[in-house]
């Protein structure tokens, strides 16, 4: 009866708890720092959505807090249930570790990826789109909720939408992102965004911008003006690291997903914005492989440009994007068609380590590893 619990950061020191029930239950979460002893409670909202002939279960969203950083909380959702969950809040300051994985799906490969991620002791998960691969068949969204619950109920999962989240059927269901928006509410209101499809959050000295590749992004769009306003709010003395997440990669030397509007169009419009803001790293998915570029601006090495990383090998049923273009472009530092996940470990104000972990290897093995210096700490890259 109780299912699909996942949590996400919701403004400073708060966490959103989301879950789905088949029968009506109050949108109430009881929580505290001692197992079984819930000293606080919070109420939230309940929604359902229709999709053609499908009616979802009751989707509950409750924001809890203020919470202490780096603390284990125990919680219970709704009434009449003995199931207790727990989550750990992220630290207030460095170090902090992000797990990064896109195009997850729900296969044996997905299971293997999740197993690896579970062993990584990460603080926050970033998912650059393509979650369930339900592809219109709504019960698969529920299956995905069950599949990720063991991890997503314990650490915040911050997601953005990919093409598989659109789920519009011409003449039958005209709205886009219906299921995604109902099931995966992100802190867009908290970050001044008009849409659940693009938002930002701050955690432990890192400002993370989650963009929507399949939402209007032109200079006159809501997304573009929100991005400009959000970047103006970033104070690099408080949040020295600036990270962005999209679904469709702007840099890609795989044969898959070349020349797509969502990649090239967004790059055309926003690359200058990212460069001028000194974005440190841009994570993407969409291509079912791993690829890391050097710091780049306008297709050339540039020490003040972002590092572009595609981590789209979560494990979905479409399989791997095995063919890379040859010769390898000079700006592509490492590329490989295998399932796995990445870890972005921010050590302090100035240094972070990115590692790529293949499912075929032991979790301790990093197939690719690079140390990043925050652009805010590089004198020659100072924002003028
Ligand atoms: Fe995709």
UniProtKB/TrEMBL annotation:
Catalyzed reactions per annotation: a phosphate monoester + H2O = an alcohol + phosphate
Family to which the UniProt record says this protein belongs: Belongs to the metallophosphoesterase superfamily. Purple acid phosphatase family.
Annotated keywords: Glycoprotein, Hydrolase, Signal, Zinc
Calcineurin-like phosphoesterase domain location: 96-290
PANTHER family: ACID PHOSPHATASE RELATED (PTHR22953), PURPLE ACID PHOSPHATASE (PTHR22953:SF153)
InterPro entries from the UniProt entry: Calcineurin-like_PHP (IPR004843), Metallo-depent_PP-like (IPR029052), MPP_PAP (IPR041792), PAPs-like (IPR039331), PAPs_C (IPR025733), PAPs_N (IPR015914), Purple_acid_Pase-like_N (IPR008963)
Protein's recorded name: Purple acid phosphatase
Organism: Buddleja alternifolia
Enzyme class: hydrolase
């Amino acid at each position: 009866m109780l299912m699909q619990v996942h949590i996400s950061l919701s403004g400073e020191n708060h966490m959103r708890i989301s879950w789905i029930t088949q029968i009506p239950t109050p949108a109430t979460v009881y929580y505290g720092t001692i197992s079984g002893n819930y000293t606080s409670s919070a109420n939230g909202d309940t929604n359902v959505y229709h999709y053609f002939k499908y009616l979802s279960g009751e989707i509950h969203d409750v924001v809890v807090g203020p919470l202490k950083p780096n603390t284990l909380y125990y919680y219970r959702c709704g009434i009449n249930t003995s199931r207790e969950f727990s989550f750990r809040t992220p630290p207030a300051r460095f170090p902090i570790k992000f797990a990064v994985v896109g195009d997850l799906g729900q296969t044996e490969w997905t299971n293997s990826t999740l197993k690896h991620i579970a062993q990584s002791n990460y603080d926050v998960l970033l998912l650059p789109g393509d979650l369930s691969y339900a592809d219109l068949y709504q019960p698969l969204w529920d299956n995905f909720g069950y599949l990720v619950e063991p991890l997503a109920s314990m650490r915040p999962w911050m997601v953005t939408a990919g093409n598989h989240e659109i789920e519009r059927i011409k003449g039958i269901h005209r709205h886009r992102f219906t299921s995604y928006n109902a099931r995966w509410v992100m802190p867009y209101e908290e970050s001044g965004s008009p849409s659940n499809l693009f938002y930002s959050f701050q955690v432990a000295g890192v400002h993370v911008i989650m963009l929507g590749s399949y939402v209007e992004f032109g200079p006159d769009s809501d997304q573009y003006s929100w991005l400009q306003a959000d970047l103006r709010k970033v104070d690099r003395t408080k949040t020295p690291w600036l990270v962005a997440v999209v679904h469709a990669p702007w840099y890609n030397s795989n044969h898959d997903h070349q020349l797509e509007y969502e990649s090239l169009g967004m790059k055309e419009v926003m690359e200058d914005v990212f460069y001028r803001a000194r974005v440190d790293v841009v994570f993407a998915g969409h291509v079912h492989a791993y690829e890391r570029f050097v710091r780049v601006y306008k297709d050339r090495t540039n020490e003040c440009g972002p590092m572009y990383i595609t981590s789209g090998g979560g494990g979905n049923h479409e399989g791997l994007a095995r063919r890379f273009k040859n010769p390898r472009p000079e700006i592509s530092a490492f590329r490989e068609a295998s399932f796995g996940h990445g870890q972005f470990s921010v050590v302090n104000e100035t240094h972070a380590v990115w590692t790529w972990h293949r499912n075929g290897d032991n979790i301790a093995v990093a197939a690719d590893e690079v140390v990043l210096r925050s652009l805010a700490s590089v004198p020659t890259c100072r924002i003028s």
